[in-house]
Amino acid sequence: MLTPGRYFLSGNVATAEAALLAGCRFYAGYPITPSSELMEHMSGRIENEGGVFIQTEDEISAIAAVIGAAMTGTKSMTATSGPGFSLMQENLGYAAMTETPIVIVDVMRGGPSTGQVTVVAQGDVLQARFGSHGDYETIVLAPNSVQELFDLTIKAFNLSIMFRNPVILLSDAELAHMTEKITVPEKIDLVGFNDIEIEGIPKFTPLGIGGKLAITGLTHNEKGYPITTDVQVHRKLVTRIVNKITKNEPIISDVEIINPEADTLIVSYGISSRAAYPVIKKHKDVGLFRPRTLWPFPESKFKEIAKNKKIIVVEMNLRGYGLEVERVGRKYGAKDFEYINLIGGEVPKPYQIEEVL
Amino acid sequence: MEFFEFYRKDRWPHQFCPGCGLGTIMNTMYKAFNDLKMDINKTVFVSGIGCTGRVPGYINADSVHTTHGRALAFATGIKLARPDLNVIVISGDGDLFAIGGNHIIHAARRNIDIKVIAVNNATYGLTGGQLAPTTPYNMITTTSPYGNREYPFALADLVAAAGANYVARWTTAHPNQLVNSLKQAFTTRGFSFVEVVSQCPVNFGRRNKMGDPVFHLRWIKEHAIPISKVSFDVKTPYEILDLNTKGIYIIGELVRRNRPVYGEALSEEEEESVPME
Question: Which of B9, B75, B83, B224 supports an S-S bond with B46, CB 3.0-4.6 Å?
């Protein structure tokens, strides 16, 4: 495993190495551009750490195998891109319903459908939150550098175990293939199963220790027995698995804020947000609100600075995170909204933001 | 182990219809498991969706009731993460071979050490008796009201061709043979597959003049031919297909072999015996 120090790594490789340092010992995946290097790197590395790698027959089985392995108490992950992520949605809901901690890396490319295979996009922002049917919550992280890909991969494993919930790391074609300097810290804080007690989250018992677990995706009671027609049982279960994330938003959410007093606030995330830094440097009356955790929406942080602001949302999709930014912004008194929505594989440039200032 | 140590008494009675073949299958499963004195705390039962998918939920062991068709994919993850556990998949024909068809041929191809009991009742029982990939030609279902115009899969033959180490087909009319076959499957290293042709008098039989479970069971028995009595050369898959089309089930052990098992380290001898092409 990587020892503490400085490295020059591509985003995909840094994600794989971070996962290994976080204790990931099971990887299942299916080749898809632009995530394949992550899988290739993992296939050569994970067995050295005593883990297991399998290339499955499709993305549906990749996430299913990951959930199965996670049920045994093994930290498990998969990586994919848009089309594969779409295939994973049903089992993503299953992981939420059965409260199985898994990590999915979605290396975003241009969609819909097969779309733009090799270029960057941020079109999966809403899918990562709303893609499966029914009421459930995901935790979604959005790094904007290779260093953050590294850091947030470790955070993804910690959050998934703390909240017994799927966590999605939204990488993208640009970050995945970009090579940057990163620092591996001396000490990496890892959360183990049942280390932290949080209200509304049952203790995790792995398969294979005589726990006689009954696991089902059907609405179930505390024993895991299916009870599908009782209003109260369903209401209690689904409200709990939603609330355990939404109610804990203040402790989950992680944002970067620059110049919170400025009249204009750029809201951006992931690779798009890198266009904001030169703008802020040049214009002292412009600030930045950059969520590292996209979902749950960092409302507790946003409400403190949104009042009377002009908000500029910068992202690489036509209808995405801006919808939620506007909803929450209006609630807390933001007065004006501008949108920069760039699709096609073009990363936003500082002058494009300056044009709407 | 008593019957109600193997099954969860607090979940009784089960939800299956009167006359359902799953009663026989649950009994034979218990018998095979008990005869072998397998460790219930080291066994995980995995299923997909459907009537048969509900069986693991009644077993007093770790049970995982997964999404439709994906039992084998989940089981693969469980087995690879914990190779010391027995992983047994029990699911229906629609779950394993229609929506989950891709997973079963790949699991068999890998020859991963998972045991599969495929309950073939020739229909989708839980959703009301629709056409399945196993419904014999010309038979009536709720989605083939004028008779089935598709040819059914020969499940066991498909899995044998894909590379499993143990493959057998029995019916609910052959409980003793089924117990022995399950025991063989549970103790064989590698992918082991037992197809159990079963009756569904309520949602399949009723529409095909076999609403009485006894009639249905008799029909199954009459249409089952022991492999030893099949007069033709069984190496020609077309002829099996022809029989299968007529709703004839060849029963017995189709395959017993010792191919290297996925995920297990090979001995030097085995390493040499693996064909390179």
Answer: B75
